[in-house]
TrEMBL record:
Coiled coil: none annotated. It comes from Acinetobacter boissieri. InterPro entries: Beta-grasp_dom_sf, Mopterin_synth/thiamin_S_b, ThiS/MoaD-like. This is ThiS family protein. It comes from the Bacteria.
Amino acid sequence: MATITVMIESYGMIKTVLPSTLHVICDEGSDVGHVLQKIAVAHSNSRLLLEQCACAIGDQMVSRQTLLHADSALVLLSPVAGG
């Protein structure tokens, strides 16, 4: 099975607990949830924030069930609060 590289871009609070440059190698056809699990294992202090963040590829929001078939940039967006 072929592997793909997923470059992680993070914004908001999640950015404070992940390295500024982060790439995840996974099998082609893995879903976004699998990528997030791999990040949580490698960076255990990010687990809670990963559970709450939204995900996007390009300018499209994606679900954790979205399958990845090529090298991609996955954007992690922490929820924001304010008034």
